[in-house]
Design a protein that fits this description.
The chain is built from 18 helices and 12 strands. A hairpin with a 1-residue loop joins β10 (443-446) and β11. A 5-stranded mixed β-sheet has the order 1-2-8-5-3. The chain has helices at 28-37, 68-77, 86-92, 105-115, 121-125, 128-143, 153-168, 175-190, 192-200, 212-234, 243-249, 261-292, 294-308, 315-318, 322-334, 366-369, 389-393, 413-430, and strands at residues 52-57, 60-65, 82-84, 149-152, 341-345, 349-351, 354-356, 361-364, 431-434, 443-446, 448-451, 456-461. By secondary structure, the chain is of the alpha+beta class.
Length: 462
């Protein structure tokens, strides 16, 4: 049961920063600069209050869908009719190649089958001690600072979630390689909206844009660092039982051949880029919301102390931290780590009464769906009580979808929630977080959802 105390103040309504939506779909000359600056700024207000909106961008038929029943059609019941967007493949070709995120058909099914066992809840629960230990080490770094010192929470959470991956799924990396991967991931995603914009305009992939050089250098740095890890591990007599070990031992079901080295690197990079980056952003936004809502922060701390006392957060505590997970889910609603999904119609079809030609883009604006006026009461306000078990059970499954939905739902969804719960519980029990009263971070979409200007918070270790 959630922990509540009669001495705790009632929650104060908090409306954290969002973006201002244009009143109508923008003409191309206004759409592109806003999209490059922050793709969320190009979402018209209609996607926040209508079930679907069909438009044309640069001559390409596009439909934004926000109604859960239409999303379920595209991602579940008619999933075979809608493929991955070529724009997504273009954006990640340099770094992720044909790994599990971008591949389709038999290749995707094989890679998913190889990786799925490592993400079973029973396997993940064995990693909780490592997750808690990383959070305790983060508190240890902060303990040497003065009370109320400013900490760069976005950088700290990236450090923590990468450490979890390195200790549980990618054993064998050197510190310099880890730093190279973190830095290159940030640089690659920082300018990615240029490549997306060029894809929307159907410009050829070879055409120069202001982000091209940086993305190429970052991709080379990423692949070089992971290649060095693979080289060392390949020389060991036993592959090991982490993700890298399982990929080294995997064999193609048709040919019996091992996974080609470039594809091995593709999948490891998918885990590193998607795995640690998304969870880091989820924790960053959650701690910001708790700093802005101290009464909720106190309730989470009280729950953690009631469930675990001062003992390290362990596997048996995760399911009992109900209020903590409600807070996490509300943060994921307001600031979904992956704010937009895109599919492409394989042939001429109809969605929501709108006729679409072959190759039409179907945009699923998760950020807008999570704030949709027809789906949520007071949608821009922070209210973890939306996710009590009773209320969550009544939601359509595509109303709240921070990890996607359907056959291609994020393979690491359970890992991310368990990791975020263990780290958040440890940090909130061990420290208090306060807002400086000034910084209002704009949510900026760079594949993941970043806070503009970072996330400085005042931290006092308890």
């Amino acid at each position: 049961m959630p922990i509540a105390s009669a001495t705790m103040p009632p929650p104060v309504r908090l409306v954290p920063p969002t973006v201002e939506a244009p009143p109508q779909p923008l003409p191309l000359w206004r759409f592109l600069p806003r999209f490059v600056r922050n793709p969320l700024l190009s979402l018209p207000v209609q996607v926040y209050n209508a079930p679907a909106l069909a438009v044309a961008h640069a001559g390409r038929a596009t439909i934004w869908i926000s109604a859960p029943d239409l999303i379920e059609e595209v991602l579940l019941t008619r999933a075979d009719e809608f493929g991955k967007s070529p724009i997504e493949k273009r954006v990640f070709d340099l770094s992720l190649g044909d790994g599990i995120l971008t591949s389709e058909g038999a290749l995707w099914r094989w890679q998913r089958r190889v990786m799925a066992p490592l993400f079973r809840p029973s396997e993940i629960m064995g990693y909780v001690p490592a997750m808690s230990q990383v959070a305790e080490e983060t508190l240890g770094r902060w303990r040497s600072s003065e009370a109320g010192a400013v900490q760069a929470i976005d950088a700290e959470m990236t450090e923590a979630t990468f450490a979890v991956i390195a200790r549980t799924m990618l054993i064998g990396g050197e510190p310099a390689e880890g730093e190279a991967i973190k830095q290159a991931t940030h640089l690659y995603l920082e300018r990615v909206s240029w490549e997306v914009a060029y894809g929307l305009l159907r410009f050829p992939a070879w055409l120069w844009n202001p982000a091209k050089g940086q993305m190429r250098r970052a991709a080379a740095q990423l692949r070089g660092a992971v290649d060095a890890i693979v080289t060392r591990r390949s020389a060991e007599p036993e592959p090991g039982h982490d993700l890298l070990g399982r990929l080294l031992a995997a064999r193609d079901p048709d040919t019996g051949e091992p996974m080609p080295r470039p594809r091995l690197i593709n999948n490891l990079l998918t885990l590193l880029e998607a795995g640690h980056e998304t969870t880091a952003k989820a924790l960053t936004w959650t701690l910001y919301l708790l700093a802005r809502a101290p009464e909720w922060q106190a309730r989470v701390r009280a729950e953690v102390e009631a469930v675990a006392g001062r003992a390290p957060i362990a596997a048996e505590h995760i399911a009992k931290l109900q209020l903590t997970q409600q807070v996490l889910k509300e943060a994921l609603r307001l600031y979904p780590p992956a704010p937009v999904m895109v599919r492409q119609a394989r042939s001429a079809t109809t969605v929501g009464g709108h006729a679409l030609p072959a190759e039409a883009m179907v945009v699923i604006p998760i950020y807008a769906i999570h704030r949709h006026r027809a789906l949520w009461e007071d949608p821009d306000a922070f209210d973890p009580d939306r996710f009590t078990p009773e209320r969550e059970a009544r939601m359509p499954r595509t109303q709240f979808m921070p990890f996607g939905a359907g056959p291609r739902i994020c393979i690491g969804a359970s890992f991310a929630m368990i990791e975020a719960t263990a780290i958040l519980a440890t940090l909130v029990r061990g420290a208090s977080f306060a807002w400086d009263g000034k910084h209002l971070p704009e949510p900026v979409s760079r594949v993941t959802l970043r806070p503009k200007g970072g996330m400085p918070l005042l931290v006092t270790v308890l």
